[in-house]
């Protein structure tokens, strides 16, 4: 059995496929049916039939891999260099935007290695090495990756390990909003016919949500939130004030019944004089830690918004603001009841909580 030079199979995958064919050859010798072999090896009936024809002509030797008919144009060392070049981004190589297309990668290979590839050959080359076409994540230009790395290395251990935080809850705060026009999500439809979702073309109203994702080793993770409605009336505040954030923190303190280490971002409502005075007056149970600028990937509460907007709010055509509130509350309540979802939001950030020697039953509130 031959593999094309750009067939998309690594050496390990070729060996795995060869083992499958040799297992099938043993089954052929025992007289097993094609359907039984396909079901046992989890392959298609057509593959088993093709293997059976090769086995009848040449035995088990005909089912062994003979490798690619020719050596790849790019060696593994050269592809490693190509990967390093691709990670620098298209602007580093003179392209206007930040998209790596097959044509651009073909051009880069020609520049760097003086090797000619077709666009189809580049697609097979990338597929064989585990590359695929993906939707990129957005990152702010002002983001300082070095400062974020320092925060994770030096600040986070101070937050989650010292005796000051033993028995405390580590709470991440974030806010989000949603208007009457819903976020889009994928839907099934006939090929070539784009599904259409009916939404409101106008109308006033928006809800803002402030949430705390709360974690303590040995305890069930918690989600605590508050809603703010803006109906578009004159003089009505459009979002939360610092007093609303203060009330949310006090509510979390009463529900959790333990000290709180509050981790939040640089929202302009957080460092106002009233909030600073509130924090200074409650240092006995409240510690505030600032996240680095433009680092939403370190905040588990961002994962809650993703779950909500890809779930309950996705493609939702609401009649009015009150229906939007009901659906949002229902979606948040489902997340509250499923603590593993809240745990998954923390795992997505790469941050971990080290279990302490003190158990929750040892703590006196």
In brief:
This protein has three domains: 11-63; 76-128, no CATH class; 145-362, Ribonuclease H-like superfamily/Ribonuclease H (Nucleotidyltransferase, domain 5).
Observed structural traits:
5-stranded mixed sheet; disordered C terminus; alpha/beta; 5 strands; disordered N terminus; 12 helices; 3 domains; Nucleotidyltransferase, domain 5; 365 residues
Describe what this molecule looks like in 3D.
Helices cover 42% and strands 11% of the residues. It is α/β, with parallel strands linked by helices. It folds into three domains: 11-63; 76-128, no CATH class; 145-362, 2-Layer Sandwich (Nucleotidyltransferase, domain 5), CATH 3.30.420.10. Helix 10 crosses helix 12. The protein is elongated, with a radius of gyration of 28 Å.
How would you characterize the largest beta sheet?
Answer: 5 strands, mixed
In what order do the strands lie side by side in the largest sheet?
A: 3-2-1-4-5
- Overall pLDDT level: 85
How far from one another are the termini?
70 Å
What's the domain count? 3
> What's the tally of helices?
12
CATH homologous superfamily name of the largest domain?
Ribonuclease H-like superfamily/Ribonuclease H
The first-level CATH class of the largest domain is given as Alpha Beta
Radius of gyration: 28 Å
Helix content: 40-55%
Going by helix content, strand content and strand pairing, the class is alpha/beta
The total beta strand count reads: 5
Strand portion? 5-15%
CATH topology category name of the largest domain: Nucleotidyltransferase, domain 5
